[in-house]
From TrEMBL:
The lineage of its organism: Bacteria, Bacillati, Actinomycetota, Actinomycetes, Mycobacteriales. PANTHER family: CYCLIC DI-GMP PHOSPHODIESTERASE PDED-RELATED, CYCLIC DI-GMP PHOSPHODIESTERASE PDEF. It comes from Gordonia alkanivorans NBRC 16433. This is Putative signaling protein. It holds the Pfam family EAL. It comes from the Bacteria.
Length: 392
């Protein structure tokens, strides 16, 4: 009987199916068995080995049993990709493990298996050979699974588009809106940072995203034009996965034609890390949207690693400077220096600039000095349903 001082290891042999492909399923299974006999069992002869399926084992061992430390040590140092002798040749094998150490986790046997599985899950996602369980892993993975199930059950009407005004620096007039996806759940309205990664993981973002794009372009052609004029624009945020959607350019082209809007009034926001690599499908989409006549913006500029080369290589029209650079503009010398450099580059290359995240008016003077064209932020208005701005 295991106690809290046990260790449980979830082992997945050939988790990426490479040996199955290279040697065939049956051969891979017998290589895996040989690996367990030749490599794993000798490390810790007193451990209990339970076979869970063709290529999965569960190893459990109490601290009191001999070889406990050797086993932990081996998982840390020795185990990983392997060659296993298979008659006169040697076969290659990937091995992935999740290790749950009872003394660290204060969990009993049933829970330890779950912790070991969680650690294995993390190891597989991170593509490392061994991961040690942390109490938060089970919680985190369960929350992601719940969210995915919940998202799958949601229907299009649970999602809507909110709009945040963007004003011209010259006269503070609203000249356009950033459209922002929102998910209406029983526990409140969620912004994309709460569900984007999970939605992408289950391929749900593409349909939800298309629905939102359709709504935004329809709103642009109707209520936004009527209340903010026929030069007002709407901006769309496109995630990495949406940008790799080969049919997206055609879809947006169809919407622009159906609603008869000037394509320059459709702003496309992409984050710099999604387009810095040229020759990718994301970069092709950006070029395709530019060819349609859309206005291309780099979103959150300065929030991550700036490569800036896309200014030369991609058809960028607008730089949206991230709020982390704008927030301290009045007080921080170095932020001012960075933003000054960005504004000089923008002026020299004919790019327009938007300042994001304006929460008070004390920064507006500096923005004018740097030649910002537009500003956006809670000071001018939070993201709200369109009716808030148009009164319709
Ligand atoms: O990455 P992107 O710039 O598209 O993010 C837009 C998000 O930024 C919106 O969800 C919005 O809620 C948030 N946001 C917009 N304006 C402000 C602001 O003035 N302050 C803060 N803290 N967040 C803002
Ligand atoms: Mn944005």
């Amino acid at each position: 009987m295991l106690n809290r001082d046990a260790t449980v290891i979830a082992v997945s042999v050939d988790p990426y199916h490479r040996a199955v492909v290279a040697y065939g399923h049956q051969a891979a299974v017998s290589i895996a068995e040989r690996f367990v006999e030749q490599v794993l069992k000798p490390i810790s002869p007193r451990a209990r080995f339970e076979r869970r399926s063709d290529l999965q084992w569960l190893i459990s061992l109490s601290v009191d049993d001999g070889g406990h430390d050797a086993l932990i040590d081996a998982t840390r140092r020795k185990l990983g990709a392997h060659t296993v002798s298979d008659g006169d040749r040697s076969a290659f094998l990937d091995v992935c493990m999740g290790v749950a150490i009872g003394a660290d986790l204060r969990a009993d046997e049933a829970d330890l298996v779950r912790h070991a599985d969680a650690a294995l899950c993390v190891a597989l996602t991170r593509r490392v050979h061994v991961e040690f369980a942390h109490p938060s892993m089970v919680r985190q993975i369960s929350a992601e699974v719940d969210l995915a199930a919940w998202l799958t059950r949601s229907v299009e009407r649970d999602f809507s588009v909110f709009y945040q005004p963007i004003v011209a620096m010259a006269d503070r007039r609203v000249v356009g809106y950033e459209s922002l996806l929102r998910w209406h759940t029983e526990s409140g309205v969620l912004a994309p940072d709460a569900f984007l990664a999970v939605a992408e993981g289950i391929s749900l973002l593409a349909p939800i995203g298309r629905h939102a794009i359709g709504e935004a372009i329809r709103d642009l052609a109707t209520d936004i034009t009527e209340t903010a004029g026929d030069e007002a624009f709407v901006s769309l945020n496109l995630s990495g996965q949406q940008l790799s959607d080969e049919g997206l350019v055609c879809y947006i082209d169809g919407l622009i034609r159906d609603h008869r809007v000037d394509p320059a009034r459709v702003w496309i926001e992409v984050r710099e890390d999604q387009v810095v690599r040229l020759e990718t499908s994301a970069a092709r989409t950006v070029n395709g949207l530019h060819d349609l006549g859309c206005t291309i913006c780099v979103d959150d500029l300065g929030a991550g690693f700036s490569a800036l080369r896309y200014v030369r290589d991609l058809p960028v029209d607008v730089l949206k400077v991230d709020r982390t650079l704008i927030a301290q503009l009045v007080h921080s010398h170095s932020d001012r220096a960075v933003v000054r450099a960005i504004s000089e580059m923008a002026a020299a290359t004919g790019l327009r600039m938007v300042a994001e995240g304006i929460e008070s008016d004390d920064v507006l003077e500096v923005l004018t000095e740097f030649g910002f064209d537009y500003a956006q932020g809670f000071f001018f208005g939070r993201p709200e349903p369109l009716a808030t701005w148009t009164g319709r």
